[in-house]
Design brief:
There is one protein chain. 42% of the residues lie in helices and 9% in strands. With 230 residues, the chain is mainly alpha-helical. It has a three-stranded antiparallel sheet. It has a two-stranded antiparallel ribbon with strand order 1-2.
């Protein structure tokens, strides 16, 4: 069946890509057997929870902790980018917060690689509310697409609301491509202008208007963190 083939391809993709990378904030691949029935992969166990548990107004983490998490995600995605990878499915459910406070990024099953030996998942892949405008248009993706998705996550972890949310996936996709999100300070007045600027830049409609590099994104997060103590 087509669905079975899709999941086998995603499993193969994740094993091939995860096997290339080794980073403290990326879930490690331990074992993989594509010939087994059913095929399987074994990933590092992460004791803790996903960040999806902290995406409503009454479950938000402290701002300083959110910034620390996003900084570590930038670091992990910068490493992945250096290995030619675009994750394509950054969302709170795919970001794991360990009990000791460490952050782990799993699920490279939907990732795209510059390595032509890895089978790419074709078509629209990912979760609509977190897709970049260029991902929706099925254009060639760069690190800037993951920056946009991480910007969506940052907005949600700080406000408890998604920046682009329609009643249907189609409506959500339209908002991502055509509308600006409500400024975070409208939803949460205690947030600083510095933080609002960071998220606005990450959520720019065109890749060129986002951060030039992951290091620039990280520097902006550091400046925002510093502003919390002033």
């Amino acid at each position: 069946p087509a669905q079975s083939t899709k999941y086998r391809r995603m499993l193969h993709n994740e094993a091939a890509l995860a096997g290339q990378i080794n980073h403290p904030h990326i879930v490690s691949l331990i074992d993989f057997d594509e010939r087994a029935n059913p095929p399987y992969l074994v990933l590092e166990y992460v004791p803790g929870r996903s960040l999806e548990e902290h995406t409503t107004p009454d479950t938000l983490l402290p701002v300083s902790e959110v910034l620390d998490i996003v900084f570590k995600c930038c670091n992990a995605l910068e490493y992945a980018h250096c290995h030619g990878l675009v994750h394509r499915d950054i969302k709170p459910a795919n970001l794991l917060l360990r009990n000791d406070g460490a952050v782990k990024l799993p699920d490279f099953g939907a990732a795209v690689s510059q390595n032509s030996e890895v089978t790419q998942m074709a078509g629209l892949v990912g979760s609509p509310a977190y897709m970049s405008p260029e991902q929706i248009r099925e254009e060639k993706l760069t690190q800037h697409s993951d920056m946009f998705s991480l910007g969506v996550v940052l907005y949600e972890l700080l406000t408890g609301h998604k920046p682009f949310q329609g009643e249907t996936d189609y409506a959500t996709i339209y908002k991502i491509g055509a509308e600006q999100p409500v400024p975070m300070r409208v939803l949460r007045p205690d947030l600083s202008n510095v933080l609002d600027d960071v998220v606005r830049k990450a959520l720019a409609k065109t890749p060129h208007d986002r951060f030039a590099t992951w290091s620039d994104f990280e520097d902006a997060i550091i400046r925002a963190s510093t502003s919390l103590t002033k």
